[in-house]
Amino acid sequence: MLALLKKKETYIHYLETLKYALYVITHPLDGFWDLTHEKRGSIAAANTIVILTLITRVAKLQFTSFLFLQVYWEGINIFLYIASVLLPLALFCVGNWGLTTLFDGKGRMSQIYMGTAYALTPYPLIQIPMIILSNVVTKEEGAFYVFAGSLSIIWAAMLIISAMMQIHEYTLSKTLFFLVASLFAMLVIVFILLLFFSMISQGIAYFVSIAKEIMFRM
Fold first, then answer.
1. Rg (CA), the chain
2. Largest Cα span, the chain
3. Which residues contact 199 (CB under 8 A, 6 or more apart)?
4. What Cα–Cα distance (Å) separates residue 4 from each residue in 8, 23, 106, 195?
5. What secondary structure letter does DSSP report for 74?
6. What would the pLDDT profile of 140-186 be if each residue is shown by its tens digit?
7. What is the pLDDT of residues 44-58, one digit of tens each?
8. Domain count, the chain
9. Which CB contacts under 8 angstroms, 24+ apart, belong to 153-157?
10. Which of 37, 126, 173, 195 fits a 20 to 30 Å CA distance from 211?
11. How many of the other CB atoms lie within 10 Å of CB of 130?
């Protein structure tokens, strides 16, 4: 009985933190402060928002009217398409955390991820209705569709700025500077990873060639 009550409390807390995303996107400064400092958010809700964003991205390919989006499935790898969201998200969190830790940033890795994930809320919130709408409007009436799609991305970008301001307790100018610096950090991380995997592949190829040489001589 006690375990059941605890499970119910956990579920209710999850729903409350997920619902709180609606407050965050309309009151970003207060919302992101309370999200992290007052523990109004949760990693579970953040994961849900990221998953909804991924589902929306895939659904947009599948269900958007051909008048607004022409998809050539032969050239699309769905796993790479999903990775095109998850990989930049992971790189941003790591890069931003690494830089801000060196310059008096207050945010932890989990807070940066949570804030970024909550900031993505406008994307599925706007894009899902737009996917449906794209199938009932004409090409001439599509200006609203294009505007709404752009709004979802711009809104999310502004929320990320607000999130980093509140999480790290930076000024706007300092936040913008470190967001740009985070983009460069992402490129550095990608370069290091590519260099690492290149060295690993060369090392494996070297030992394979030695093994083949030994087997040939035997």
1. 22
2. 75
3. none
4. 6, 29, 37, 50
5. G
6. 767 788 888 889 999 999 999 999 999 998 889 999 998 999 999 88
7. 999 999 999 999 998
8. 1
9. 153/123, 155/25, 155/122, 155/126, 156/119, 156/120, 156/121, 156/122, 156/123
10. 195
11. 21
- DSSP letter string over 117-161? HHHTTHHHHHHHHHHHHTTTS-STTTHHHHHHHHHHHHHHHHHHH
**Containing structural domain, residue 130:** 2-217
The helix (H) or strand (E) run that includes residue 175 is helix 172-217
Q: Please give the single-letter amino acid code of residue 21.
A: A
Q: What average pLDDT does this structure show over 78-107?
A: 88
Q: How far apart are the first and last CA of the chain?
A: 69
* Residue listed under structure tokens 């890795």: 109
Q: φ, ψ for residue 108 (rounded to 5)? A: -90, 165
Which residues, at least 6 apart from 71, have a Cβ–Cβ distance to it below 8 Å?
61, 62, 64
